[in-house]
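Quick bug: Lysine--tRNA ligase output formatted oddly.
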Amino acid sequence: MADITHWADVIADEVLAKGKKHLVATGITPSGHIHIGNMREVVTADVAYRALIDKGAEAEFIYIADTYDPLRKVYPFLDESYAEHVGKPLSEIPCPCGEHKNYSEHFLEPFLGALDHLGIHPKVYRADELYKEGVYVEAIKQALVKKDEIAEILQKRSGKTPVETWNPFNPICLECGKVNTTIVTGFDLDAETVDYDCSCGHSGTVSMKGGGKLTWRVDWPARWKALGVSVEPFGKDHASRGGSYDTGQDIVKEIFGYDAPHPIVYEWIMLGQKGAMSSSTGVVVSIADMLKVVPPEVLRYLIIRTKPEKHIRFDPALPLLTLVDEFERLHSSDNTTSYDKRIIELSHAAGLCHTDIPFKHMTTIYQVAAGDFDKILKIVKRAGYDTSNEKCIRELVDNVGNWLEMYAPDNAKFSVQEGISVNAANLTPFQRAFLTSFSDILEKSGELTGEDYHNLVYSSKEAGSELNTMIAAAMDVSPESLEVNPKELFKAVYISVLDQASGPKAGWFLSSLEKDFLIKRFRDAAAYRP
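Here's what came back:
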């Protein structure tokens, strides 16, 4: 069976059939916390761009922040003081924390930092700056002159007739500062000005250069023409029949004389069982928070492994460990297809850290060392992992520490106890014999790996093995008659060290602890009497 071609390469081939030179664009409105659902659009654009470059295209990649969009409402994460700013462009509203230039930068700045962390480096445009620099002036003139033609396209495509006062351009009121409360009353193409009346009672004249913005269904196709966009991903909401891409295709062709970009339609990322992520509803995991807990290449992998048209279910609790495991297995496998290799290749990006330490193993090491980096490094060295890139190990340690604090369920957490708990009094004679025998074997052994520990415990089931013979002798029974249940042995280990009946993967766990500590702890637990 032939290898499957990755979806990014399929898209690149389709795009290259239309020409060699391309501009890949993506954009998000920074009205709230930019979340992992939004990240699907940017990663999709990035891998399409990379696939084009890999195939020899002359490609550029840009990101447009829709900073001139109005604030729609007072979102759950805002205080009521923002009620007066509803309707104003995001770039003209005060920053919620007071530390950024404006409202849009408050959400945009951490997002752009996250992009860099993910190895994504588009040229960034801000819509307010594009409007104020005059990039849209020609499109505004054409839209004002051809207002009725645009209205006819919108009615034909969407089935909705624009209201009588509708206009493709929304002036920003010079009095109240709002962009969605004005009505155009006239315009002067030579002076490049637009007259308006506002519902606040003010009338005035604004410049086409930054004095307002095109409505979304006209702004989008105007942007394609003004910037030369030829490829763009967007959510399924824009792709519906009569939606903004549908109307945009006709508007850009008939009004602006340009072809609509190649569309890449993507489905939503669902948060656990809570549904689609949305900044306005608060159902989000912010991208900044996610990068605190997931290695960036794994986050890229989450999106890259799934075709854009299929939804992704994401849960940052235990299922996250399964996702990381899956990536690590694929990454280290010697039996990968060319499709698998392509996924790994696209998941990597320049500057992204990678270590050979499994994420799940680090959750054990981190908790054994109680987060102490020097102790963690010592355990990592003893386990035989490569420690040459301390920066990457520290990133992984930070990811794991944040995951344990922010998302890990209680049953994934543990702490090594300072001494023997009273629960050790409940150990059975069989468990005590095991702990004593286990300690004796450890005392005369060299350093053991996680696999060594695992195999040693399980050897107790084999009649005639050293551990089996020692346990039988301690209990004064024949090895043949000794009934061994490894679950009871592991339970004895966890009670001795963690004061709980279960714990992390035993091999990794035991190899993360000092052997001398284990010998003393197991003997103390075996001898413990209240």
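Actually, after a second look the formatting is fine. The chain is about 45% helix and 10% strand. Closing.
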